[in-house]
Amino acid sequence: MTDPTTSVSTPGRVEPVDYTVDDGLATITLQRPESRNALDTVTKEALRAAVDEAAGDAGVRAVLLTGSGQAFCVGQDLHEHVRRLADLTLDEVWSTVEEHYAPLAMALATMPKPVVAGVNGVAAGAGASLAFACDLRVLSDQAGFNLAFAGVGLSCDTGASWTLPRLVGHARAMDLLYRPRTVDAAESERIGLATMVVRHADLMAEATALARSLAAGPTLAYAGIRRSLAYAAGHDLAESLAFEADQMARTGGSQDHRDAVAAFTAKQRPVFTGR
């Protein structure tokens, strides 16, 4: 597969998204620090390519999404958005939701492998939604979330209507969306937006360590857990129990399960291969 970070080769140019794979861990880094990693069209296309690459690569067993500079991602690049509003039809302007934001949320939330967000600074608007679409969020103590959509007269996108209530509950989600404000790292952890908060200097080490531990884990089991939780969110107990049974049968036939049981009986630590 083509590395999305090398699809355009301009000497001296820093690509808006960096994509690397090391020992089963794909790290995707937004690289527009001068604009706080705002999402212009080029960046959205590069990010979608990187996420799709990670989702489809069987050699990738976990994904880490992060940003460079002082922000994780502040969402849509409003400077580009103003130009597009002046030059394009409304259908053309808002096609980006279907072409970029929705596919990004779907891929992050449904790929059959764990996804960790390393939130290095503010995550606002679609940037916050991207972090919420990940399984786990490791926050710098200097980071925070802002559901900024209503502040610019918009509803919400990139899956926030689905992910946010599942993280904090319906009532709090409504409040965060109706009254945009920056929720700091400590409050984010308290209300369930952050999995953990670490010192800013330790963020990448901690987030990478967590993602690497997941990359070394039972990949098929993680995929089954992801699918089971998503399925149960929209089905009743009986249907969810049946779905769980299917996933147990699927993961129960894996080499990882057989190896883990053998390791348990031998009083050894299991080694998972993701098969």
CATH superfamily of the largest domain: 2-enoyl-CoA Hydratase, Chain A, domain 1
Supply the number of structural domains.
2
Judging from the principal axes of the Cα atoms, what is the shape?
Answer: globular
Q: Given the helix and strand composition, which structural class is it?
A: alpha/beta
Strand order of the largest sheet: 1-2-3-5-7-10
CATH architecture verdict of the largest domain: Alpha-Beta Complex
Structure explained in plain terms:
The chain folds into two domains: 4-215, Alpha-Beta Complex (2-enoyl-CoA Hydratase, Chain A, domain 1), CATH 3.90.226; 219-265, Lyase 2-enoyl-coa Hydratase, Chain  A, domain 2. The two termini are 21 Å apart. The strands form two sheets. A six-stranded mixed beta sheet has the order 1-2-3-5-7-10, with helices on both faces. A four-stranded mixed beta sheet has the order 4-6-8-9. Helix content is 48%, strand content 16%. The chain has 275 residues and is of the alpha/beta class. α1 links the parallel β2 and β3. α5 crosses α6 and α9 runs antiparallel to α10. The relative contact order is 0.11. The chain contains eleven helices and ten strands. The chain has helices spanning 41-56, 78-87, 90-110, 126-132, 160-168, 170-178, 185-191, 203-215, 219-232, 237-252, 255-265, and strands at 17-22, 25-30, 62-67, 71-73, 115-119, 122-124, 136-140, 144-146, 182-184, 196-198. The longest helix has 21 residues, at 90-110.
